[in-house]
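Propose amino acids for all 234 sites.
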């Protein structure tokens, strides 16, 4: 399969998921109570979409099977990226760092626990590691490639711990799935620097996490809006 199809697929399916999520946020929840409306068609379609995405990603990645055996494990994870890809990667890493820094600032102001602050710092270091790997891909930095995945995994644990008290899983399920897919994608991407390249799994989870990221954006905003509504009702 032409490698150009992967980013195009992520953008197209991500846009579709974004639209489905927006539709679900406006029709599947009661405007006053924030409770989910049973049997809403938009939420059913969205759930089918979340199941279909990893299946489609796997089918698209299957042609890569066996290509990992031909790759020399040099640890140069981003060596063959084109200039546009490098630019986007560096921009993504910088945004990753900026978001983590804003999160750290907010957690310091609210007096968050040490574990939360440690994850925030790890997220910043992981984002910086991504930028460093892309800008200077010539040397072997195995541990550095694992930091983004570890930071997302720890963030996933804390996010679930804070959101699990909410009985409406549909409010935070999209972002939860996105974090899970992202952690797996970063883990398999790091495997290339350890001589354990698995192109099929790496591409499957990378595509899945990219599509889920688009889909989760309206859900994250919707969750915040619904929580404010609940506080008002109280």
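Proposal:
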């Amino acid at each position: 399969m032409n490698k150009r199809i992967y980013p195009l697929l992520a953008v197209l399916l991500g846009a579709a998921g974004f639209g489905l999520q927006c539709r679900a946020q406006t029709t599947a929840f009661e405007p006053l109570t924030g409770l989910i409306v049973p049997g809403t068609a938009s939420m059913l379609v969205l759930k089918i979409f979340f199941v279909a995405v990893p299946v489609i990603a796997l089918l698209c990645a299957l042609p890569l099977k066996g290509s990992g055996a031909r790759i020399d494990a040099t640890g140069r994870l981003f060596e063959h990226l084109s200039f546009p890809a490098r630019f986007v990667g560096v921009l993504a890493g910088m945004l990753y760092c900026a978001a983590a820094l804003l999160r750290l600032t907010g957690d310091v102001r609210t007096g968050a626990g040490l574990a939360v602050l440690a994850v925030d710092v790890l997220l910043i270091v992981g984002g910086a590691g991504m930028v460093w790997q892309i800008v200077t891909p010539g040397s072997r930095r195995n541990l550095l490639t694992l930091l983004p995945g570890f930071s997302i995994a720890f963030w996933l644990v804390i996010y679930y711990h804070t959101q699990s008290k909410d009985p409406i899983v549909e409010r935070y399920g999209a972002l939860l799935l996105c974090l899970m897919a992202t952690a797996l994608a970063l883990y398999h991407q790091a495997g290339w620097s350890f001589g354990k390249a698995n192109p099929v799994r790496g591409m499957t989870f990378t595509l899945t996490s990219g599509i889920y990221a688009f889909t989760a954006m309206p859900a994250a905003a919707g969750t915040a809006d619904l929580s404010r509504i609940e506080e008002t009702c109280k």
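The two ends are 55 Å apart (CA to CA). The CA atoms of residues 115 and 158 lie 9 Å apart.
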